[in-house]
From TrEMBL, chains A, B:
UniProt KW keywords: Aminotransferase, Transferase
Domain Aminotransferase class I/classII large, chain residue ranges per copy: 34-377
GO molecular function: pyridoxal phosphate binding; transaminase activity
Family the UniProt entry places it in: Belongs to the class-I pyridoxal-phosphate-dependent aminotransferase family.
EC number, as in UniProt: 2.6.1.-
Name this polypeptide is given: Aminotransferase
UniProt cofactor(s): pyridoxal 5'-phosphate
Gene3D superfamilies in the record: Type I PLP-dependent aspartate aminotransferase-like (Major domain)
Transmembrane segments: none
InterPro entries in the record: Aminotransferase_I/II_large (IPR004839), NHTrfase_class1_PyrdxlP-BS (IPR004838), PyrdxlP-dep_Trfase (IPR015424), PyrdxlP-dep_Trfase_major (IPR015421)
PROSITE patterns in the cross-refs: AA_TRANSFER_CLASS_1
Entry-linked NCBIfam families: PRK06836.1
Organism: Slackia isoflavoniconvertens
Length: 395, 395
């Protein structure tokens, strides 16, 4: 009698959340230090001191102002601050009017799918991909079309993407730096993708968006640069969140950028406003909006993740595991030692290693290892990874 | 090419928001004190000191804990605190497991409509009603069925409600204390409604929910008591928000109660979780969740609203306006001096009185006057109301 689809979504938690819950229970059983939980993407680096200072500063303002409704698009001063920060970084000319503040990346994406998608439309995702994309796309009445990444380096297969585009294609979702692989898409590939999309727009007489899901934009290693997509492709919607860059995942704060370089951008912006309204988002949390206004240029603390990355990637490679060298985000993509990733994840569990099998991300044979954990967890887990390797070598 | 329905929802702001925006512009033009803005329900009473103390207290905790993801249903300690508070007040036996923390009342309602509604289902609302109900019901693919309140006292017309129930009726939304009328539904009427719903459930072999939208539960005057609905009717979902009771409308914090006295409540609770997930709500803002844990028994400051109510209701009645005596919330329902409420609201505007015509709420001939304003606004507006009355008397 209730909505069966919603019941199923609510009663079958994601494999990631399930593994995380198992880890919590297992830690209670055998001790925190004896479980190596690489399951979830909860930032281990605490929010910067600047966030706390900003909260205390905002709390000096009159409460009716701090906690009152903001316009549904966000407080004007906050939107202006976000636009100005983008302009400083990317040499753009955005205004507050291009920014729609949201309750985090999930809200940003769900709103975009509903804003541009009509029932029956298609959204292309690149597998492996964050599994909630499919939930939100289908909730907008649309279809999630999976196009596999290249199997050698897990970069975009642009030929395959172009081949998957139909007259019903409304957008392609790209996520760079990538969850779960850690790859960053280079500018040359984005230019090639843009050209392919323009060809298909001309062929079908449609508009095809790029939805750039960028919560990891600030979390990159070495000299890697994450190209900013809107100057490369005009029909780009950027979905941003401060969950990872400022370690605020519980606070639900982010934004959608509808660039003023998009043809008829006001029209699309209005659809974004309408979708936010229809889904039940009244405004992004007000106190946190004012915190963002104050922290908009705060750098992310990448050092701890860089140290973890080195220890994990170096350690596992040395043990003989095949890994994709992560350029960004805080995930390592490791090949399972047998074709069945779920069976391999179970075998790893016996060594107290909690790894997410790639089936959750729409592909076979790999695992995601989240390294947003305490550094000792990585160091202390190495003997277990070595044992696991030995077990498979002597099978 | 984008979603036309979303575009329209985004480009046609609600009449209330439009009037509010007009008021802001007009104040800039002729001075704050010369515009009597009764348009919007933004609490004028500031958040209690206890909220600030709670925020500062939470900020003493480690940031990774304060700002980290909570489970999607909410932090266990917060859910337990909300349940315990309800138990103290209403002699119930809820547990944290019955509470789903949300991003405010809009989220609570949107999630409930999606959780229990299947495409084509009907939700009954009592007109006049909060206009966003229709937006959220239709976004769930369902139909909004308006049943008029009684025309003498704007209480529920239970016979009419029963007559409107069909095999497709999934729920009736009740909002007591009521926006826009200020009425509180008495226990005897709720019992009668419950019996009518049970009769129809038996007749059609269906489950019919009451969705009790209760953001104004704490804001009542004199000896008025707001009956708690779940003990009266088993299939009740309570949608709560702290926007009005703690003056936190911008923070987006509330909850859904799925009572353990509802048959098969776990099933419905899972559908609530699924709907939250599908719409893009990951969790309610974490810092504010922990604030609620600390402020769950904080009383609402009703005194200022009571004083405003007396001045406005007393003043307008004395001038000859027909008003419904408000029992709760912070709205006065006033009969327009001509049949066309929109024309009357325009005439009022010429006296710098910003009143919301009842068409926004699905009925003709009345106006909503929000008295969550500075007391002087009410006192100073009386000559303008008197002028307006004279103007109509001498027409």
């Amino acid at each position: 009698m209730i909505n069966q689809r919603m019941y199923e979504l609510g009663s079958e938690p994601s494999a990631i959340r399930e593994l995380f819950a198992y880890g919590q229970a297992r830690k209670a059983e055998i001790g925190e230090d004896n479980v190596f939980d690489f399951s979830i993407g909860n930032p281990s680096v605490p929010a910067p001191e600047a966030v706390k200072r900003a909260i205390l500063d905002v709390m000096e303002q009159p409460p009716a102002q701090v906690h009152g409704y903001t316009p549904s698009q966000g407080a004007p001063s906050v939107r202006a601050a976000v636009a100005a920060s983008l302009n400083r970084r990317f040499d753009t000319s955005y205004e507050g009017a291009n920014i729609y503040m949201t309750c985090g990346a999930a809200a940003s994406l769900s709103i975009c799918f509903n804003a541009v998608g009509n029932p029956g439309d298609e959204f292309i995702v690149i597998s492996p991909y964050f599994p909630e994309y499919k939930v939100w796309i289908e909730n907008a009445g649309c279809n999630c079309i999976e196009v596999p990444a290249r199997r050698d380096d897990f970069q975009m297969n642009i030929e395959a993407i172009e081949g998957a585009i139909t007259p019903k294609t409304k957008a392609i979702v790209i996520n760079s730096p990538n969850n779960p692989v850690g790859s960053v898409y280079p500018e040359c590939d984005l230019i090639e993708l843009a050209n392919a999309l323009r060809r298909k727009q001309d062929e079908f007489g449609t508009t095809i968006y790029i939805i750039a899901d960028e919560p990891y934009r600030e979390i990159v290693y070495g000299n890697v640069r994450v190209p900013f997509v809107p100057p490369i492709y005009e029909n780009t919607l950027v979905c941003y969140s401060y969950s990872k860059s400022l370690s605020l995942p519980g606070e639900r704060i982010g934004y959608i950028l509808v660039p003023n370089t998009m043809p008829d951008w006001e029209h699309t912006f209005n659809a974004v406003c309408g979708a936010g309204r229809a889904l039940g988002f009244v405004c992004a949390p007000s106190l946190l909006q004012y915190v963002i206004e104050r922290c908009v240029d705060e750098p992310s603390d990448v050092e701890a993740y860089a140290k973890n990355r080195e220890a994990l990637y170096g350690g596992l490679t040395k043990l003989g595991y095949e890994c994709v060298a992560p350029q960004g985000a805080f995930y390592l993509w490791v090949r399972a030692l047998e074709p069945d990733a779920q069976a391999f994840a179970e075998a790893a569990k016996a060594h107290e290693l909690l790894l997410v099998p790639s089936n959750s991300f729409g592909v076979e044979g790999w695992l995601r290892v989240s390294y947003c954990v305490a550094h000792e967890t990585i160091v202390n887990s190495m003997p277990a990874f070595a044992e696991l390797m030995r077990e498979y070598q002597t099978r």
